[in-house]
Structures are given as C-alpha cells and as structure tokens.
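Internal ticket #5521
Category: modeling
Description: The requester needs a full-assembly model to guide mutagenesis choices. All entity lines are attached below as received. Residue total reported by intake: 639.
Assigned to: D.W.
Attached entities:
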Amino acid sequence: MCDIHQGAHSHQTIDPAAAEMIEKANRENIETVWDRYEQQKPQCGFGDLGLCCRNCLQGPCRVNPFGEPKEGICGADADLIVARNLLRTIVGGAASHVDHTFMAVQCLKEASEGKAPYPLKGTAKIKSVAAKLGIPTQGKTDTVIAQEIARAALADFGSSTDDPMNWLKATVSPNLMETWGKLGILPKNPDREIRTAMHQTSMGVDGSPINLLLSSLKMGLVDGYAGLQMGTDVQDIIFGIPEPVKSEANLGVLSHDKVNIVVHGHMPEVSEKIVEWARKLDGEAIKAGAAGINIAGICCSGNEVLMRQGVPLAGNYLSQELAIITGAVELMVVDVQCFMPSITKVAACYHTKVVTTTPIGQLPEAEYIPFTPENADIKAQEAVRMAIAAYAKRDPSRVQIPTQKSEVWGGFSVESIVGALAKVDAANPLKPLVDNIIAGNVLGAVGVVGCNNVKIVQDQQTVEMVKDLLANNVLVVATGCTAHALAKYGFLSPAGAKKYCGEKLLAVLTAVGEAAGLGGPLPGVLHMGSCVDNARIGDLLGALAGYLGVAIKDLPVAASAPELQHEKAVSIGTWAVALGVLTHVGLVPPVLGSPIVTKVLTADVEGLTGGKFLVETDPHLAAEGMLNHIRAKRKALGI
Ligand code: BF8
Ligand code: SF4
C-alpha cells in the first residue's frame, strides 16, 4: 500500500491544509482517495447514466441510450432500470439512517432503564417529544417518560398494521399528512417499508417507473422520520440539546505534543464516551510523556461532538486519510458510515491505531472493541488507553501538522435558535425572524448539506455557492461534511458573517447576536449538526410555515447538496423534495439514462409535493437558480 502511488494530481482541493497533506502523501508514497479515483477512470458510462442492472443472475444487463439493446434480458427498459436503481439507492440511504437511529433508541431504552451509563441530559427534549407523541407526563419522572418514549419508538419498528408511523404523525403538519396520504406514500413500519422496497425492485416485480418513483418518495419519508427525526429527537434526549459553542476547524487542530484521538463515523453513543474518557484519562497521557489528550472529529461524529462538547473538527470526508497522514494521530475510532476501508492501510504506514466499534462496521486490519450501551465506559477506556500507549511510537520526524484552523461556532439547534430570537422578542420568538424575512432583510434561507465527493474539487462548489447566497442576504444553515467545509473557511463564525454576508443580513445577525449576548453577529452560516440532524432543518421549516400559516412548499427556502457522495444524501434529498423544498444537487445523479425519471425528478414531482430537484454543477448558477426560486416564492406570498 505504502508504495502504490500514482503521482500528484492537481485540482483536488481548495483546502491548503488538505493540499499540504496530499503533497506529503505523494512524498511518502501513500495512496489516497484521489489516486484511486484516477485508477478508476474512465468510469463506466452505463453506470453513470443508471443503465446497468444486476438485479438478477441473468445479468449484468446494460441498455444503450443511443441504440440497441433497448432492454435487459427480462425486458426491463431504461426507465425501469433507472427507477429501480434509484429506489435501491434511496433504500440504502434510508436503511443507514434508520439502523443508526435504532441503535440510538436501544441506547435510550437501556439508559432510561438504568442499564447503560448514559445520564439523560436532554430533559427539555423529553418533555417536548413526549408532548408531540401524546405521552402524558404529569406525575412521572423524566426517566419514566424517557422509557415510554423509547417504547413508542420501538412500537413504530414493531408495528404490523397499515397505519402510518407514529413518529411521522407526531411531527408533521396536517397539510403534509394530507398531501402524502393522497399520494399513498405515508410510510408504515420503517423496517417493513425497506423490505417491501427491496422486494418491489427485485427481478419480475414492479414494472412501473412511476410507481417506483412514488416508492422513492415514500422511502425519503422513511429516512426523514424513522432516521433523521427519530434519531435527532432521541440523541438530544440522551446527550442534550445542543447550545451554541465555539471551537476550531481544520487539520491544524491536531496537537504536536498531546495524544491525538480522532472520532470518525456517526454514532454519538461511541464518540461521546470517547470524549468523556479522554478527558478523564488526561492524567495518564501526561504520565506517558504527552501534554494530555486532544480529541478531534471527522465527518458526522465530528459534528456531533462539536455541537455538544465543543470538540474541534479535524476534517470532512475527503480529509479522513489526510488526518492520519499528519503522522500525529494515535487513534482513529470509527463506528458506522463514511469511513473508507483504506484508512487501516494508511494507518499501517504510521503508528496510528484504528479501532472499530460495531459488529457491522469491521475493518480486517483494525482492532475491534465491541461497544454496547452497557459496556461503553469500559470499552471507551480501553480505546483511550490504546491511544496513550501508541503515543510512544509516534515518529516525530514524520509528523507534519498543517497550521490552518478557523474559528467555528456549532450547536444551533432549533431550540437554541429560538432561544436567541427570544432575547429579541420573548413572547413571540419567531416574529423577529419572520418580520425580517417579510421586510426583505433576510431574502430567504437555504440548507446546505451533504458530503465531499472525489469527483468535485474538495469544498469548492460549497464555498463558491454559499458566498453568492450570503451576499444576496440569504441565511444559510449547514450540516454534515458541508458544515465542515464551510467551517474551514470561517463561514461559521461572527467574522465570517462580516466578511461574506450582505448588509441587510448582517444587520439582522448582529441585532440577534448582540441581543443574545454574543457581543457580535451570529455566524451567517448556522451549524445545525450532523446529517441525521437535518431533522432540525425540517423542524425549523415546519415552525416557520406554521407561524405564517402556509405550507413548507410556499416558503422562500431551498436545500442544496453541492458535493453529495453517499446514498444517504440521495435519501435526504428525496425527503426534502417530499416536504416541498427545491433541492439542488451539484453532481448529476445516475438517472440521466431515463427520460421519464429525469423529468419526474426535475419537473413533474413539483405538481405532487411542491418540491423538485435542481441539477446544476456550476456553483454560481446553482446559487442563481435557488435565488430565483426564493424570489418567486416571495412574490407568490406577496412579500
Ligand atoms: O452522514 S455528509 S460524507 S459523514 S453522508 Fe458521510 Fe456525506 Fe459526510 Fe455524515 Ni452525511
Ligand atoms: Fe437483466 Fe432484467 Fe436481470 Fe436486470 S432484472 S439483470 S435487466 S434480466
């Protein structure tokens, strides 16, 4: 591994810290994601258009968009193959989030029964979730209510009726229930929906591209409510509702003289415990000759522990190998999702230990420390001590930590945003925001979410697009690896607001920031968390729509995944479209092989839900497309 190296390539990243580490990788003959991308070129044109089918063993079949064959062996045509593939992609995304959420629910159940060492920190969330689920709380302790909430969540997974999921019903407005009910896309038991969709897409079942597309919308709702919403609600109950917190972002957060532990993946059940024990075992690291323990986060684990613990962000998806290439990381702890199988190979070139923690997320060269809610304290200590032991093996001659790091503010939950606005108008917290939207001081809002993708220069589309949005007085909220991207360039700080926001938006952010006691503007981009935390954006949209007495589809808002990579980004985007939101993607998804699927996703679906996809690879045109949409929505509202 350490000697398979394909040479340097330009146009990989706009992040100077990442560029410095790519150069180091080249010097040290270490292969990275960019090298492997070059080796894959040219990528298959059939796959790129969504026209390859492997759904039965008569295949693989490929249909030719420009000639023959027009059908696979069973007679499936381009539209059918693309629609089936798309639904399977969305099933993949939804399954990832739903499984993540199920593990969080199990943790809540055990914690609330006193069987797992997680004190429930989100007492306000216990009350608000119980209220929305209709769980009576009078005379009950928080623990008892939390047990009932866990049981309500598990009831959705155990349901064998045809009733829609309770968590969805408890969360969304009657107009959405009506829209989705009419379309027949209200999901039942999420596990059953995932099973049914796999069945529906198997050889010889559904031959209707339109029916498959409706199931795709339904699968977006499975993700939205059994993944994102339930996950966020439950994680807030266990770990606390995030509050604004200041930290730093980029590879410069790694330490020269401390034991560096990087948490990577998605599950706060794991990352929170690592952070807790790293802090408790700091003295052991000092005894071992280090200056203490430094924790940093990659991907969504990074977002989770930034929001609740102020832990700095080391980097987003494309930077995960680069963190190890600094030569300064003692331990990388992963759980599920988005860690590349390559990390153990890169780690083997250094003293870095990689620890896997879940039965489904194994890497053959890593150490497996099986975490469960009950044993989390013991296992976290084991992992942290492994990092301390590895420190002695660090080779200072190979350490090179980029200096770049930026100030970042994280932790903008809906509750904390409303809390800040309440400092302006305690009786009616949403009023200052809505008044400023009506007055045009805030033109609208865009949720910028999702990943890095090796096909796109790291962070470039995100940064360029967000600059245009902010300059046009559009408030931006961010999650996932996009939030990391924006953090690296200072967008998630008060100084970033001054640098990038239009005058009117800056004035609003300053008024709210000062009222909230921050002594300056709120950041122009509010960090709302991990990808699962996209539910917070849904909650905010629901609250704004409710306040104005309109539907979400009528709001001057949009969503964007400028550098999407994972199946989860596709399922989240589909949820957003189902909510009625214009959703930009900065990379052409593999659907162009089907004229029907392409037309439905980018046009016709708007007549069903009010949302649709906007596919645009140029960041400035993407911003323009969303600005035009926002202006049209304002006009329709008469503002
Ligand atoms: O769930 S943004 S690369 S880390 S998929 Fe993965 Fe994409 Fe990052 Fe978080 Ni979200
Ligand atoms: Fe080919 Fe049809 Fe089988 Fe797909 S399901 S591999 S198109 S025969």
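Resolution: model delivered.
Comment from assignee: The radius of gyration is 24 Å.
Ticket closed.
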